[in-house]
């Protein structure tokens, strides 16, 4: 049976749908370009491997999140059939945690690859980083999968008290009380949020310190170094990511606070910001990569983007 959908719910679904489809298109572009590069070169470097997994996990996250949001607003009773609710939430959690940890791994990769420190451990990581990346990505996915399984079990236990024995078809009540059994879920989710956020902060601080130290050495020796450009490009990318990651972190905490027994008009702004993060960050990554940026500007149908691409080409040629 269809729920009583208000005009606010209809507008909310329309806005979230547009936002998610934009994010899907951005990440489909990212994955498609990297897959074509993989086919042509028969290999991918470490940075491209991280971007490929990040784009794929974000595309899947948008798909499952749109299904969850659409059903929760339009057909909430269909969502709460056992075990549909647990499966959807656990899959969404797996993809969300994968997104957070893989994006944090990208920041750590930039830090190790570009920053210059004489510490023996840091030098070892810099030499072995290309071999470490596949295992880092595998660990991120496995840990995300394990946590999503724990979330599934905790939700199943929390819903047992709300099971209506009199209803047929094993329908779970859509209203879930804020109980002590939900605390493990919040603890696990909070741990993932904090750990990934701390990894981004430390990577940004280390890279910033390396840039400051490198710049001071250049001024002392009165010489120029091409690695300064790499430092600056990486810092722009990580700092922009740090800003939107901080906003996303605050929104994630608010989501935990208002996750249970909150009306749709309260949770709607949280969902808007939450679902804009993966697409917006992927867009930043695309325009931070010269190859991806060039391909993006070529396929965009708008004339302004073509003119911008021509201006950049002329500027580069004139600089050479």
Automatic annotation (TrEMBL):
The chain crosses the membrane at residues 12-39, 51-74, 94-112, 132-152, 182-209, 238-262, 268-288. SUPFAM superfamilies: Family A G protein-coupled receptor-like (SSF81321). GO terms for cellular component: membrane. Keywords: G-protein coupled receptor, Membrane, Receptor, Sensory transduction, Taste, Transducer, Transmembrane, Transmembrane helix. One of its GO terms (molecular function) is bitter taste receptor activity. Its main location: membrane. It is a multi-pass membrane protein. It is found in: Membrane. Belongs to the G-protein coupled receptor T2R family. This is Taste receptor type 2. It comes from Neodrepanis coruscans (wattled asity).
């Amino acid at each position: 049976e269809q729920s009583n959908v208000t005009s606010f719910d209809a507008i909310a679904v329309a806005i979230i749908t547009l936002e998610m489809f934009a994010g899907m298109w951005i990440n489909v572009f990212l994955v498609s370009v990297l897959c074509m590069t993989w086919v042509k070169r028969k290999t991918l470097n470490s940075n491209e491997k991280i971007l490929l997994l990040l784009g794929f996990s974000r595309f899947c996250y948008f798909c499952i999140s749109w299904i969850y949001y659409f059903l929760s607003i339009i057909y909430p009773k269909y969502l709460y059939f056992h075990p549909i609710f647990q499966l959807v939430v656990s899959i969404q959690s797996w993809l969300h945690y994968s997104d957070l940890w893989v994006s944090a791994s990208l920041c750590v990769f930039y830090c190790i690859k570009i920053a210059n420190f004489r510490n023996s451990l840091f030098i070892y990581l810099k030499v072995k980083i290309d071999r470490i990346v596949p295992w880092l990505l595998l660990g991120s996915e496995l840990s995300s999968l394990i946590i999503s399984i724990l979330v599934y079990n905790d939700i199943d236990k929390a819903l047992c008290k709300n099971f209506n024995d009199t209803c047929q078809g094993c329908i779970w009540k859509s209203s879930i009380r804020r109980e002590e059994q939900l605390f493990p879920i919040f603890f696990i989710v909070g741990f993932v949020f904090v750990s990934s956020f701390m990894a981004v902060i430390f990577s940004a601080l280390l890279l910033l310190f390396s840039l400051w130290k490198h710049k001071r050495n250049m001024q002392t020796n009165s010489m120029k170094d091409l690695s300064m450009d790499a430092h600056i490009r990486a810092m722009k990318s990580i700092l922009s990511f740090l800003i939107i990651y901080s906003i996303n972190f605050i929104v994630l905490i608010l989501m935990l606070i208002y996750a249970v027994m909150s009306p749709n008009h309260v949770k709607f702004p949280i969902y808007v910001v939450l679902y804009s993060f993966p697409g917006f960050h992927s867009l930043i990554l695309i325009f931070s990569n010269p190859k991806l940026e060039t391909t993006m500007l070529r396929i965009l149908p708008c004339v302004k983007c073509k003119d911008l691409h021509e201006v950049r080409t002329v500027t580069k040629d004139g600089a050479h």
